[in-house]
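Data deposition worksheet. Section B asks for the primary sequence of the deposited chain exactly as it was used as input, without tags or linkers unless they were present during the calculation. Section C holds the resulting structure in token form. Section D is free text for depositor observations; keep each observation to a single sentence. Incomplete worksheets are returned to the depositor.
Section A, Depositor: J.P.
Section B:
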Amino acid sequence: MEVKILADSACDLPLNFFQENNVTLIPLKVLIDEKEYEDQKTIQPIEVYDSIRAGNHPKTSQPSQLAFRKAFVELAEEKQQGIYIAFSSELSGTYQTAVMVYDQVKEEYPDLDLTIIDTKCASLGVGLCVREAVKLAQQKAKKEVIVKDIQFRSTHMEHLFTVEDLDYLAKGGRLSKASAFLGGLLNIKPLLNVEDGKLVPIEKIRGRKKLHNRILEVMEQRGINFESQVIGISHADDFTTANEIKERFIEKFGPQDVVITSVGAAIGSHTGPGTIAIFFLNEIPS
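Section C:
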């Protein structure tokens, strides 16, 4: 029996990925106009972006304890090994809740064989770890091999991203060192990354073309052996830009593959429409 992979919706992989690969989806929640939705299951990203454009401010919350309990009990009753690949504990209480529920279920089911990994990654940064874990599981790799691979990838995962409006991130408390970056002149775009699981601004860049050129420069500085890895791009209702960047990556770096997904409803509630995020490794697993 292959190792069961579990992931939350903040990994920003599409619903069909979970369905086609038998991955358990733990949905974060999105609140719009006092109505609660389950990310990926009962709300899609475009609904969030349209709501934001209409002047609303969606809120999010971590998955319910019940959702975790159901998934963990099912794993225990099927006597299956599992790995839950979690969204950064610095950006959400999702990981902490999972650990709490795990402890409760473990008391009832002492044989529960589940490893919970705090990736300290976000969006497709988590998603790329999930994709590789699923590949290894389908190849019948041992659990410890998959855990080691996830830990390596999450430790060496680079995140580079830009948003249309930093106010979304600041209001939601998701942004560190934000004060110096708020406001600014017309057509100035922020470039951010993730450090120790937190979102941190790197610099401001005037103009879209310069921003995209700068992303390529930073990738060249930080990345390694692109021909041996998969680059991830997630976008918030801007597939055209994501595809343009993909073509530039292919031309410049010749990567093994470039995966494009939509920023999900939960993360998109904080980043807002127009976000573009890039994910790649700064070291390759041996």
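Section D:
The chain has a mean pLDDT of 92.
The longest strand covers residues 198-206.
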